[in-house]
Amino acid sequence: MHIQNLSARPDLLEPALRLGDIGSEFMQHDPVAILTRARRLAERWPEFFLVVLDGDVPVARAVSVPLAFPTPEREHLPDHGWDGVIIWAVEDALDGRAPTTLSALDVQVAADRRGAGIAAVALNGLREQARESGLDRLVVPVRPTGKTRHPMLSMEEYLSRRREDGLSEDPWLRAHERLGASFVKVAPFAMTITGTLDQWHEWTGSALKPGPNAVEGGIAPVLASPEQNLGVTSRPMCGWSIP
To answer: Which InterPro entries did the record assign (predicted)?
Structure first.
């Protein structure tokens, strides 16, 4: 198994895109994420768009963006998590500011290859790419995969759930822990998504009731207000640093 980036192998973009997407339909409607559509990232930062190959077959992708962190005005990872690092990366690109850190955005493994440790290979590839690019660290805004089974549980309480060996109950968090990653903070406002009640019905297939709602694929409730015809969710993530 080996890793290529799109700077060296631009022909891998299309098969990499076919590996999957980031989750449920409503996750496609985060306005900040429009800045980082995969094709746009592949054009702007191809060296940080990695594809894991088993022989000649793409089995995973790992997408990331470079940014300046920490700086005097960026002492801590952003409360807006995934959205926040995207905004920082775009700001720095527009301002011509030299990056010092790499932030992961998306790791996808082919559906028939999940559970075989390939995601950890992809993460390690991002770490090596950061080092080769002269960047100080890799940071990861993590959406725990098992959190969809506990959408009403706070992220802090979910993170406290541990196995007998001391590792997280969550398989995606365990992958980071096994790479020596350090937990930094909970980002409470990562991926803030808003829509009308009709839009949420279209995205989820469910009619929202007033107040908090658990939805398929959600790691946090959607808060619905019929009076304002509005549903909103801020999907918490947890920030990790991988040296």
So the answer is: Acyl_CoA_acyltransferase (IPR016181)
